[in-house]
Amino acid sequence: MRYEGNVFRPPSEARSYILQCTIGCSHNRCTFCAMYKDKKYRIRTMEEIKTDIRMAKIYYGDLQKVFLADGDALAMPSEDLLEILNTLYRTFPSLNHVGIYAGPDSILAKEMSELTALKAAGLTVAYLGVETGDPQLLKDIRKGVDYDGMVEAGQKVVKSGIKLSAIVLLGLAGRGERSLEHARNTAQICNE
């Protein structure tokens, strides 16, 4: 398969075919993350993506799991994502799982009808980098949304029917004075 730069996926996507739909991360300003610093964000052409799907069909035959990469493929136009999902499910008859990284800004920018259409088309899980529930840490790490925005993004995914997998960074506050606030507030945001 053709990949530009390093590709990343959540541990639970270890056995998934990684389809690189975007290059880099649409936000790419988080202070703790170096995953996409060497890439300028862009959306791959539909022709490139469909060629990769055809190549995967030749190489793998049938697939059950696909992960849409890079850092925030949900930032793509919904029409493009729907076309990709349609192509994947037509190409791989045994496909039953499609995951995606989803940034909070990208979730908030989508209408609920867009998210429910993606769910209906076969998007099964969105991985949201919540990182922390501590409002000060969210600001310090330049996540791009505040506490309420992060809660709204997570709840929006859940309401759409897409499974939400929230990623938190347990040691993000270090051993300093914010570690207790980080722990408590992260538990709270996960509960919300």
Q: Going across the major beta sheet, what is the strand order?
A: 1-4-5-6-7
Coarse shape: globular
| Average pLDDT rating | 92
Strand content: 15-25%
Outline the secondary-structure elements.
Elements: E1 17-20, E2 22-23, E3 42-43, H1 46-60, E4 65-69, H2 78-91, E5 97-101, H3 104-109, H4 112-120, E6 125-131, H5 135-140, H6 147-160, E7 163-168, H7 179-191
Parallel strand pairs: 1-4, 4-5, 5-6, 6-7
Antiparallel strand pairs: 2-3
Explained architecture:
This protein is of the alpha/beta class and 192 residues long. Helix content is 40%, strand content 16%. It is built from 7 helices and 7 strands. The strands form 2 sheets. The protein has a 5-stranded parallel beta sheet, with helices on one face. It has a two-stranded antiparallel sheet with strand order 2-3. The N and C termini lie far apart (39 Å).
List keywords for this structure.
192 residues, alpha/beta, single chain, 5-stranded parallel beta sheet, 16% strand, two-stranded antiparallel ribbon, 7 helices, 40% helix
In short:
This protein is α/β, with parallel strands linked by helices and 192 residues long. 40% of the residues lie in helices and 16% in strands.
